[in-house]
Amino acid sequence: MSEHYFTTSPTSAHERRIIHYTPRGGRELSFETDAGVFSKTRVDRGTDQLIRAIRIDPKESLLDLGCGYGVVGISIATLFPDCEIVMTDINERACELAKANARRNGVERITVLSGDGFDPVRGRMFSVIATNPPIRAGKAVLHRLTEEAYDHLESGGRFYAVVRTKQGAASLKRFIGQTYGNADEPEIGGGYRVIRAHRE
Ligand SMILES: C[S@@+](CC[C@H](N)C(=O)[O-])C[C@H]1O[C@@H](n2cnc3c(N)ncnc32)[C@H](O)[C@@H]1O
Question: Is 5 in the pocket of ligand 1 (CB under 6 A)?
Answer without folding.
Answer: yes
